[in-house]
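Practice record 12: protein with (2S)-2-hydroxybutanedioic acid.
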Amino acid sequence: MTDTLFSRVTSAEPDAILGVTTRFKADPRPNKVNLGVGIYLDNDGRVPVLNVVREAEEAIAAQHLPHPYLPISGLPGLSECVQRLLFGADSEVIQSRRAVTVQSLGGTGALKVGMDFLNHICRKNKAAVSRPTWGNHICLLEMAGFTVNSYRYYDATHDALGFDAMMYDLGNMPTGTVLVLHACCHNPTGYDLTEEQWKAVISLCQSRGLIPLLDIAYQGFGLGLQEDALAIRLFAASGMSFLVASSFSKSFNLYNERIGALTVVTASETEAKTVASQLDYVMRANFSSPPSKGARIVFHTLSNETRFNAWCQEVANMRTRIRQMREALAREMATVDAKRDFSFVTRQKGMFSFTGLTPDQIERLEKEFAIYAVKNGRICICGLNNQNVAYVAQSIAAVL
Ligand code: LMR
């Protein structure tokens, strides 16, 4: 066979999460359930359009706006809205103007720009992620040029966060390591740090010179929009420099609009201006400038008090439904007399539950019951509803 340019390229594995959706869609069984990808579904199994989004879309459409390029850093005004949501309206970080925010292609795009900035501009090349973490963290870091290490996070024996082990591992990270942290609703485990634990992590980051990169893709799905920003506000209060990757995919149900933001908190307004110029450079080299639709919807909502309050209520409704489904699953698992106590699902937060199901058990759920989940045992609670939760519980009990 002749050696061509691509003849030595081998096939990549399908994505561990998005590949589940592909298989789910191809499955003709009518009772199928997708607990794979982290997408919010309502009780009828649909991705809802929020009322605030519908209203924003109508208002924006009525303006018949032209389509020039946005500035490299994104829609003017969006960054102020993002910072208020992250730090609180009266935050010192906002008043002192020591943070810079740029619009990004979803939370993934924010991570990518942040990582490129840290690697290519700040010359950092070591990073650490929690074990386990969202798989794409590792891909993103490697593509941005980092060597990726990990720190222990989940304690399988106790179905809990293994905080002592986490601190031990963080204490042994080389100075200058970029530390990827989940600000809330840890993906995939659903276990978050307490305020005291965050404070201990912050002190350790300060004493060991670790560089925090906080991923906040699920703000509002844990305890509340303000409560879920706790870690970010504690880092802000510490005076440290750090980065935050925000996503509006989940909290606005705007998955395909790719709308997120990267915020870099620096030591001073002067430093923030310099960093802003470099972020523009990185953004331009990645995708030139971001798209406007998702940004306009989010800005329209967050920049007006009435619409902001309406959005908070819609996020609260989604959060409540997730909590109810956690309770329903735990109840159904107890009813079917499962071999394992499943009450841990009610202690986890956000969209996901880390079930401890093995890859073989996940495979059986898919093959025998048309229930789809991620191989590592993560299920998306939002895929549950009043119609399928009993079936899911019976099926899980059957494979245990
Ligand atoms: C997930 O973890 O399922 C979501 O963040 C979607 C994705 O891109 O992986």
